[in-house]
């Protein structure tokens, strides 16, 4: 929206300009709540807004002449910005001129020397008065005091300037009057009008009676701006019918020209060529009017004046300017599409199509430009943002004009996305399988679980903990056996594992990030305890105390390979560690007895002879298949006795005792088969899970 006000210059501070709340049709309370701000295009803050009343007031002295010079219209531009939602209103304040400056001549007196033979109608320019006001308040007319010889002519220039000239209406006669004293009054059109005066002293000279004459009253030329130095503007031609020095002409720039114009143009006093000697800038001036005078070398000198109007053609020599009115270099990654990131003002000092500016950003970025109104754009987000995908953007705003060729300017806006906790931690594996040998050292690392969180800083700081897995034995609390480092995920054992008590353990590891609220994830860890050969075989039969032997009696007539006894042993380990073998290590006669490798049966291998000893001591070693193997020894004493029924009864008793041995062996075989089956099923399940 755009609102226009008009006020006169030189208003006092606090003067009323307009009621923005009324003109916008909004409630004053809403303006105060919306954080109303006044933004000025100029360096000074000439206006302020009372947010409680909505009234725009003058806050600094406004001098129209200082702001706009001789421009017929003078404007100050404001922008009102409100928040929630962000809106901009453009206010244009026209500064009206008041008649606060009188016309002023450069000096109080001016002296002219006029030849008495000056022809009627000759013109003598007087330095004009200057009035910085504009319109009707500026210089309007001149008045010349009454006299017999001169009349006043006011020459109007194309830029509105008025130059007084004395016109000779009646021939001069030096002998009659050598000096003429006139008063020239300059008056503006204000109400009431203001004026100033200059005294003119005219000295009438004798002799040189012909002045130079230009071949035309005015000259015109057209140049493009930025023309190179030395470019010819125009060549003047003036003639004087006098002879000798009175007809020798010299050209010069009139004193009416400003010092700035003299720095831009130079004239050759001999040839009358006007050339460029300074920078031509269309943006500073579109037309120059050069006052030139031609003087002869007579005594006194006679001169003639003409004007040269130089029009400047604009070229596209100014690149657009990009000004950031508002900009935030940080943006939350959860910002919604359409969020305003920056407000951009563009301008181009060129004119016409060359001064029109178009802005754009790369379509590959998640940002877009919205044109709010002429010369202002807003940079908005166009899609959802993801810091984990792209954390930093360099948004290049390109501003191009419509010149041929076009000029452009690129401004880079660095935008950093602020992280939000929108990503849960992810484990490297969905589950972990760990093989742990029993009797492991306390504090040894069993497994290291690792998770990653693509968020940053506090949102990516991870913490690990152990939880009981569903479906597990309530008595197997994993936190009793295990601990986990909260930051690096290393799972360590609190106690050594005993395969004979625990063969398998499963638990969950939970990881949580440091966001608010925290996000979590879990993984399942399977711990398989591997058996170690840590149990020696234990002899169940025959039973004997420490450092004692078991005695067996056999008759001398025993027939080989008669069974004497059977050594029965078991091993608490499993697998190969529980595979037992029996060995006869020592005997009174190694060739008389044998021990079965797997069953442990002790048999006599030959018939007894009279020369054989009556007492035989056998040392049987039971050894498992572990690495290294563990063993247990048992000592058997075999007595050869002929006791008749008693010996037979002892033999039968031992045979009866031996009748229970196959049952124990059966138990061992069944246990071994069950352990093997469970192991095979576990390995098959592990293989299926891996696949």
TrEMBL record:
<protein>
    <recommendedName>
        <fullName>Protocadherin gamma-C3</fullName>
    </recommendedName>
</protein>
<dbReference type="InterPro" id="IPR015919">
    <property type="entry name" value="Cadherin-like_sf"/>
</dbReference>
<dbReference type="InterPro" id="IPR050174">
    <property type="entry name" value="Protocadherin/Cadherin-CA"/>
</dbReference>
<feature type="domain" description="Cadherin">
    <location>
        <begin position="6"/>
        <end position="105"/>
    </location>
</feature>
<keyword id="KW-0472">Membrane</keyword>
<feature type="transmembrane region" description="Helical">
    <location>
        <begin position="664"/>
        <end position="688"/>
    </location>
</feature>
<feature type="domain" description="Cadherin">
    <location>
        <begin position="215"/>
        <end position="322"/>
    </location>
</feature>
<dbReference type="GO" id="GO:0007156">
    <property type="term" value="P:homophilic cell adhesion via plasma membrane adhesion molecules"/>
</dbReference>
<feature type="domain" description="Cadherin">
    <location>
        <begin position="106"/>
        <end position="214"/>
    </location>
</feature>
<feature type="domain" description="Cadherin">
    <location>
        <begin position="546"/>
        <end position="664"/>
    </location>
</feature>
<feature type="domain" description="Cadherin">
    <location>
        <begin position="323"/>
        <end position="427"/>
    </location>
</feature>
<keyword id="KW-0677">Repeat</keyword>
<keyword id="KW-0732">Signal</keyword>
<dbReference type="Pfam" id="PF00028">
    <property type="entry name" value="Cadherin"/>
</dbReference>
<keyword id="KW-0130">Cell adhesion</keyword>
<keyword id="KW-0325">Glycoprotein</keyword>
<keyword id="KW-1003">Cell membrane</keyword>
<keyword id="KW-1133">Transmembrane helix</keyword>
<dbReference type="InterPro" id="IPR020894">
    <property type="entry name" value="Cadherin_CS"/>
</dbReference>
<keyword id="KW-0106">Calcium</keyword>
<dbReference type="GO" id="GO:0005509">
    <property type="term" value="F:calcium ion binding"/>
</dbReference>
<feature type="domain" description="Cadherin">
    <location>
        <begin position="428"/>
        <end position="539"/>
    </location>
</feature>
<dbReference type="GO" id="GO:0005886">
    <property type="term" value="C:plasma membrane"/>
</dbReference>
<dbReference type="Pfam" id="PF08266">
    <property type="entry name" value="Cadherin_2"/>
</dbReference>
<dbReference type="InterPro" id="IPR002126">
    <property type="entry name" value="Cadherin-like_dom"/>
</dbReference>
<keyword id="KW-0812">Transmembrane</keyword>
<dbReference type="InterPro" id="IPR013164">
    <property type="entry name" value="Cadherin_N"/>
</dbReference>
């Amino acid at each position: 929206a755009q609102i226009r006000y008009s006020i006169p210059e030189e208003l006092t501070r606090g003067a009323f300009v307009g009621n923005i709340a009324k003109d916008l049709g909004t409630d004053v309370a809403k303006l105060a709540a919306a954080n109303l701000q006044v933004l000025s295009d100029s360096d000074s803050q000439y206006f302020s807004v009372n947010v409680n009343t909505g009234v725009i007031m003058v806050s600094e002295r406004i001098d129209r002449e200082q702001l706009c010079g001789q421009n017929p219209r003078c404007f100050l531009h404001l922008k009102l910005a409100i928040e929630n939602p962000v809106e901009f209103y453009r206010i244009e304040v026209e500064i009206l001129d008041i008649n606060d400056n009188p016309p002023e001549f450069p000096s109080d007196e001016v002296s002219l020397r006029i030849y008495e033979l000056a022809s009627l109608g000759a013109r003598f320019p007087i330095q004009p008065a200057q009035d910085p006001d504009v319109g009707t308040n500026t210089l309007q007319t001149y008045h010349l005091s009454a006299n017999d010889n001169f009349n006043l002519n006011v020459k109007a220039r194309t830029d509105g300037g008025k130059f007084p000239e004395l016109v000779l209406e009646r021939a001069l006669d030096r002998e009659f009057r050598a000096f003429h004293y006139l008063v020239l009054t300059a008056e503006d059109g204000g109400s009431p009008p203001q004026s100033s005066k200059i005294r003119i002293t005219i000295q009438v000279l004798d002799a040189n009676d012909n002045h130079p004459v230009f071949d035309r009253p005015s000259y015109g030329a057209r140049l493009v701006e930025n023309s190179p130095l030395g470019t010819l503007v125009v060549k003047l031609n003036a003639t004087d019918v006098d002879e000798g020095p009175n007809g020798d002409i010299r050209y010069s720039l009139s004193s009416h020209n400003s010092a700035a114009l003299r720095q831009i143009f130079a004239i050759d006093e001999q040839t009358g060529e006007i050339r460029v000697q300074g920078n031509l800038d269309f943006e500073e001036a579109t037309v120059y009017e050069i006052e030139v005078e031609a003087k002869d070398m007579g005594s006194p000198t006679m001169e003639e004046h003409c004007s040269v109007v130089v029009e400047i053609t604009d070229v596209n020599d100014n690149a657009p300017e990009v000004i950031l009115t508002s900009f935030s270099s940080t943006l939350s990654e959860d910002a919604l599409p359409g969020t305003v990131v920056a407000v951009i003002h563009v301008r181009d000092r060129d004119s016409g199509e060359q001064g029109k500016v178009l802005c754009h950003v790369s379509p590959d970025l998640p940002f877009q430009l919205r044109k709010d109104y002429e010369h202002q754009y807003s940079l908005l987000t166009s899609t959802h943002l993801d810091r984990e995908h792209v954390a930093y953007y360099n948004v290049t705003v390109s501003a191009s004009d419509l010149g041929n060729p076009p000029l452009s300017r690129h401004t880079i806006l660095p935008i950093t996305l602020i992280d939000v906790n929108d990503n849960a931690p992810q484990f490297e594996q969905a589950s972990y399988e760990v093989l742990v040998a029993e009797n492991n050292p306390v504090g040894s690392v069993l497994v290291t679980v690792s998770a990653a969180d693509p968020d940053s800083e506090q949102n990516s700081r991870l913490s690990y903990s152990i939880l009981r897995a569903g479906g597990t034995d309530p008595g197997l609390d994993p936190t009793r056996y295990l601990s986990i480092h909260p930051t690096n995920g290393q799972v360590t054992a609190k106690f050594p594992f005993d395969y004979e008590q625990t063969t398998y353990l499963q638990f969950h590891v939970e990881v949580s990030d440091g966001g608010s609220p925290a996000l979590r994830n879990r993984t399942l860890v399977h711990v398989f305890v591997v058996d170690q050969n840590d149990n020696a075989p234990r002899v169940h039969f025959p039973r004997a105390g420490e450092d004692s032997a078991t005695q067996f009696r056999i008759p001398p007539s025993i027939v080989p390979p008669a069974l004497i006894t059977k050594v029965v042993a078991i091993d608490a380990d499993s697998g190969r560690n529980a595979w037992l073998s029996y060995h006869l290590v020592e005997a009174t006669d190694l060739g008389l007895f044998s021990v079965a490798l797997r069953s442990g049966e002790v048999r006599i291998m030959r018939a007894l002879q009279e020369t054989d000893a009556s007492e035989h001591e056998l040392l049987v070693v039971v050894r498992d298949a572990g690495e290294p193997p563990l063993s247990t020894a048992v000592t058997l004493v075999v007595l050869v006795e002929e006791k008749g029924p008693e010996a037979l009864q002892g033999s039968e008793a031992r045979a009866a005792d031996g009748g229970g041995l196959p049952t124990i062996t059966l138990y061992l075989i069944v246990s071994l088969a069950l352990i093997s089956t469970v192991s095979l099923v576990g390995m098959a399940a592990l293989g299926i899970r891996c696949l």
